[in-house]
Specification:
31% helix, five-stranded mixed sheet, alpha/beta, Restrct_endonuc-II-like
């Protein structure tokens, strides 16, 4: 919910890249649509996307995976979201519509494994916000509390 609410307020601001696991600044889009979404191609499994943001003017989408636990996000969860991105591309191809530019945003209050952090460094289309990053972002868009971290079984 925190990510969804923040994304609805984005309006082409330039934000510190450290909030997204990047160097420099990240320009956030003005999304026309922000929602939870399931993607499924004709011959693919279905994938749930925690938060889907669509910016029509620049034909971009952000796919977000959100984990609010103390457990670190591992590469398996990243690969799952990348599979969802591939299915989204396939859906556009099946429908004969233009494939948007896709950015992946990982949000994990428990942080990320070293493998994920190394992988993120090699990708400019992949953002990652840890506990500190998502709290800075949430507060920049009007949040007045720190996001709680839940135990694994909560």
């Amino acid at each position: 919910m925190v990510v969804e609410v923040s994304m609805m307020k984005f309006n082409h601001e330039r934000l510190p890249g450290s909030w997204f696991g990047q160097t420099g600044e990240v320009e956030v889009p003005l999304f026309q649509l922000v929602k939870t979404m399931t993607v499924k191609g004709a011959k693919t499994p279905s994938y749930q996307i925690d938060v889907f943001g669509k910016e029509e003017r620049n034909h971009k989408v952000w796919l977000c995976e959100c984990k609010y636990t103390k457990t670190t996000m591992d590469i398996k969860q990243v690969r799952k979201l990348e599979s969802a991105a591939q299915v989204l591309k396939q859906m556009h191809q099946e429908e004969g519509t233009a494939v948007p530019e896709i950015h992946i945003w990982l949000v994990s209050t428990g942080g990320f494994t070293k493998e994920v952090l190394t992988y993120i460094d090699s990708r400019s289309d992949l953002y990652a916000s840890d506990y500190e990053g998502i709290n800075h972002l949430f507060k920049a868009y009007g949040g007045n509390y720190s996001i709680p971290q839940f135990a694994v079984n909560d």
